[in-house]
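Entry type: protein chain
Record version: 2
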Amino acid sequence: MGEGFQFIDIILFAMIAAFLILRLRSVLGRRQDQGQDHRSSHDPFSRQKGDDNIVQLPDQGDRLRPADPFEPEAEEVAVDPSASPLDAGFTQIKIAMPEFDRSEFMNGARMAFEMIIQAFADGDTETLKSLLNNEVYQNFVQAIRAREDAKETLENTLVRIRSAEPIEAYMEGSAAYVTVKLVSEQVNVTRNEDGEVVDGDPNHIAEITDIWTFSRDTTSPDPNWELVATRSLD
């Protein structure tokens, strides 16, 4: 009788062990599959040997379409309804120029603003030529030459840049354009050859708003942006 129960126990233990082995294999198999799906969803640009995937420029604000063929279709065509035209423009620039960083660009725009207005006041055409496109450069040079012909000098003191914000960004062919609104506090004084003030007030800090547009050819190896248009609200 006891031997019968022992035999039944052995059979039950064998059945339980077989069930656990099958259960363990099925669980491990599912986890491995889930791991593969997880990696592909977080690497939308991953490619397998033989794939011929092309990253397309989004149309009318569409997001960059992932190159992974296993990505769900709903995520590939998702559009952020809150995206502004400015953000859409920066997205287009980022697609054409993956190394583009919006914060770094704005820091560069502030630095360029300081360098350009100081170079203009000093009549430093060499510095201006490296930062402006030809049309804007010629306009600046013309103003400098007119000032020199009148034997006048310009004294410029940039007190501070109160704000700098992008107001427009877009692609035109291979050229990227970003327009920046810069609000600064400056002291500008023009003196004649005798040192007398003919324009401006050395004791007055003026708030000046400038609208500057910078551009860069995204296909060019030259990483520098150029000032291509200027206007002032003052």
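Comment: The chain has six helices and five strands.
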